[in-house]
Design brief:
Helix content: 40-55%
Number of helices: 17
Strand order of the largest sheet: 2-5-6-1-7
Largest sheet: 5 strands, parallel
Structural class: alpha/beta
Length: 384
């Protein structure tokens, strides 16, 4: 197992890990979602580590920087065990559905494939994989369906929605992405268990680009929430152990100043408060160092999204929607479609996709972070 997957500081996600393990045990796949920096990647890695420790096979792909379907297909194939490669190559040779040079590449790698990847250069020739992916995935589906459950890896794919977003920005036809996602569903249906993680809303991404939602069929959706106050307090005490700031009063001061209890905010606060010796010093560190750092880290990206992702008409509607949600209680409110311009639903989708708002209880809409609500109310001149 790749030791880079292990994180000795990982804590507090036992309920989520137990549910995901149960889903995997019933041969289903998982979609991990949640706002940015809540620790989805660490949950994904923790699931894989525990599965490996119990004797299961695993694979892991971080596709955040992947800008090529060719590279994605190559790396996906690389995660297949040698038994799968043996049978896949035999079927491809028998069916003659791919060109000779691609067949030759498969043959040359059969004896070099290990459970966790290849020992040698793993670059298929030309751009053959995207062109011939459908016959390859159909034969792979056939092979996977004949394997024992224990012989197939659980494959984690981190930031798949972000990869799709990058490919769309580079002009990749949405139909090609629909083919890719449909291929992943075929592999899931054949027994390959996937854990797909990402902050970008997959459902909204598909809707905005007219890609059928059927590709998400059968996925268990696991939302990774912010920490509770008790969890955040325990996290800070661990981070500040042995330091004067780790005591209860100082930790409480830090928590009182944080707008949200997500791991990244807690890490920034713990770093800022590490050398504090009392409650007053912690309060000063939060106001002068931690909170400005959090705002710089998180708010700039939302300003940029409004400028880049919303043309004039959409921007006016987006601002109107955000104003309505900001004036409501922190728990959110419903939107009166009769009082909003035509096309507001599409803008709501985009705002949700861009992590500005999320759907709460009773069809209410609220800001995804308290920090965002505070920021929007401040920039729009609303009283705090």
């Amino acid at each position: 197992m790749d030791n880079s997957l292990k994180n000795p500081d990982f804590r507090f996600r036992e309920h989520e890990l137990a549910r995901i393990a149960e889903v995997l045990a019933h041969r289903q796949s998982v979609l991990l979602t949640g706002i940015r920096r809540t620790g989805k990647t660490q949950v994904l890695k923790a699931v894989l580590v525990r599965h490996a420790e119990q004797g299961g096979l695993i694979g892991f792909l971080d596709v955040q920087d992947c800008v090529s379907l060719h590279a994605f297909y190559r790396d996906l194939l690389r995660q297949m065990p040698k038994t799968v490669w043996d049978n896949l190559t035999e079927l491809l040779v028998e069916m003659r559905e791919v060109p000779d040079r691609l067949l030759s590449w498969f043959r040359n790698h059969v004896d070099r494939i290990e459970v966790n990847g290849a020992e040698v250069d793993f670059n298929p020739p030309g751009d053959d994989l995207p062109r011939y992916w459908q016959p390859v995935v159909e034969r792979l589906q056939q092979v996977l369906s004949q394997q024992k459950h224990s012989e197939l890896p659980v494959l984690g794919i981190d930031e798949l929605p972000f990869m799709l977003e990058n490919l769309l920005k580079r002009g990749i036809d949405p139909n090609e992405l629909a083919v890719m996602l449909a291929g992943l569903r075929k592999l899931r249906d054949a027994g390959l268990r996937l854990i797909v993680a990402g902050s970008v809303s997959m459902e909204n991404l598909l809707t905005l680009h007219a890609i059928p939602h059927t590709v998400l069929g059968g996925l268990w959706r696991e939302v990774i929430p912010p920490f509770t106050r008790d969890e955040a307090q325990g996290y800070l005490r661990d981070r500040l152990a042995g330091n004067a700031a780790g005591g209860g009063p100082a930790t409480d001061t830090i928590l009182e100043h944080l707008p949200d209890y997500i791991p990244e905010f807690l890490n920034i606060a713990a770093t800022a408060a590490r050398n504090c010796t009392d409650t007053a010093a912690c309060e000063a560190a939060m106001r002068q160092t931690a909170l400005p750092a959090i705002r710089r880290s998180f708010l700039t990206q939302f300003d940029e999204r409004l400028v880049k992702n919303y043309p004039n008409a959409d921007l006016a509607i987006a601002e109107q929607i955000l104003d309505i949600v900001a004036r409501a209680e922190a728990s959110g409110c419903r939107l009166d479609g009769n009082a909003l311009p035509p096309g507001y639903r599409q803008v709501v989708l985009k705002l949700q996709y861009d992590n500005f708002i999320l759907e709460g209880q009773d069809f209410n809409w609220l800001f995804s972070l308290n920090l965002l609500r505070q920021w929007w109310r401040a920039t729009r001149g609303m009283e705090q």
